[in-house]
From TrEMBL:
Coiled-coil intervals, chain numbering: none
Domain of life: Bacteria
Entries under PANTHER family matching the protein: MUREIN HYDROLASE ACTIVATOR ENVC, PEPTIDASE-RELATED
Ranges of compositional bias, category Low complexity: 169-183
Organism: Streptomyces chitinivorans
Ranges where the record places region Disordered: 1-52, 169-206
GO molecular function, one term: hydrolase activity
Top-level EC class: hydrolase
Protein name as annotated: M23 family metallopeptidase
């Protein structure tokens, strides 16, 4: 049973950390207190005995802070004897993350010169050194290398994508340019072909014109008009009371006795009186065409061969005639008559 005797008053010296009672047995003003069983009673209630933190406690706190920092940075401190594990972090700037995390070494250091851990680092209980990001040095190196490799790969992929896009655009431009060039070449070829065809057509026309001119020149040399001086009074197909049907020939008005010539070489096959035609001469040409000369006043040649320009008769007004003139008909193959005017022009004669 505890004694009811009150405990002596004591004072606490923070420098010596000793309790001393006031009394005559102490040294000077601070006598030594010798505790007894009754004076030392257990402390009850909510009072606690304050314990000073030792170095081990502080190290544990530091270790906890380091672990928290490592987890916040996306990694965890590992022992050096374990193989490092790469930490994949998409597009994370580790330097920026590390700047926002308190330096573990700064928390551990108490400002003394004897602290063996450099500023910004702490010793891991597993044997490694914890960096500012809370990672083991080997892990931090692996993380940085992995992040750099990922960033490099990403940059390479983007560069390849840009190159592919640029290549595709360039290929499209080249294809469009080739198509445009091909189309322009085709158009140029078509235009050249058209120009060549036009040139050939004009050349052919010119050649044909020259050939016709040569032919007409030869015919002009071998053909001639029946009279040197004349006036056309009635044309082919003209109608009138003088004819039972439309006019079948071409009338050359000229004075009586005007010489009449053979228009081409041939043979006189008939000469004499022919009713309404009066005196008539029929000249058959080499191609079988018959040329009739009518209303003659006289016939110079009545049979045989003649050449171009030979005089075969003279202008008159015999038969069914109203005045002196030469009625000329042209009958291919001895058949129906055709227009003498067109026939003479086809033989190169200007009429």
């Amino acid at each position: 049973m505890a004694s009811s005797t009150p405990a002596p008053e004591v004072s606490y010296d923070p420098h010596t950390a000793a309790f001393a009672p006031f009394g005559p047995e102490g040294d000077g003003d601070q006598p030594v207190w010798n505790p007894t069983e009754e004076s030392v009673r257990p402390v009850r209630g909510r009072h606690r005995v304050v314990k000073q933190r030792t170095g081990m406690a502080r190290s544990g706190a530091v270790l906890g802070v380091g672990v928290i920092a490592a987890v916040g940075a996306g990694g965890i401190a590992t022992a050096k004897d374990k193989s490092p594990v790469a930490i994949s972090m998409p597009d994370v700037d580790l330097g920026a993350v590390a700047e926002g995390i308190p330096v573990v070494g700064g928390l551990v250091s108490d400002g003394g010169d004897d602290d063996p851990t450099p500023q910004g680092e702490a010793t891991s209980p597993f044997g490694g050194t914890v960096t500012q990001a809370g990672l083991d040095t080997s892990d931090a190196t692996t993380t940085v290398v992995t992040a750099d490799a990922g960033e490099a790969l990403r940059a390479r992929i983007l560069q390849q994508a840009d190159q592919q896009q640029t290549g595709a655009a360039q290929a499209a431009l080249e294809e469009a340019a080739e198509q445009a060039a091909g189309k322009a070449a085709e158009e140029a070829a078509d235009q050249a072909a058209e120009e060549e065809a036009e040139r050939k057509r004009k050349a052919a026309e010119e050649a044909a014109r020259k050939a016709e001119a040569e032919r007409l020149a030869k015919l002009a040399a071998s053909y001639t008009l029946p009279l040197n001086s004349y006036q056309l009074t009635s044309t082919f197909g003209q109608s009138g009371s003088m004819w039972s049907s439309n006019h079948t020939g071409l009338d050359f008005a000229a004075p009586t006795g005007t010489p009449v010539k053979a228009v081409h070489s041939g043979e006189i096959v008939e000469a004499g009186w022919a009713g309404s035609y009066g005196y008539r001469i029929i000249l058959r040409l080499d191609d079988g065409t018959e040329v009739w000369y009518a209303h003659l006043s006289s016939m110079t040649v009545t049979t045989g061969k003649v050449t171009t320009g030979d005089v075969i008769g003279r202008v008159g007004s015999t038969g069914n005639s109203t005045g002196a003139h030469l009625h000329m008909e042209v009958r291919p193959g001895g058949g129906d008559p055709i227009d003498p005017l067109a026939w003479l022009r086809s033989k190169g004669q200007s009429i």
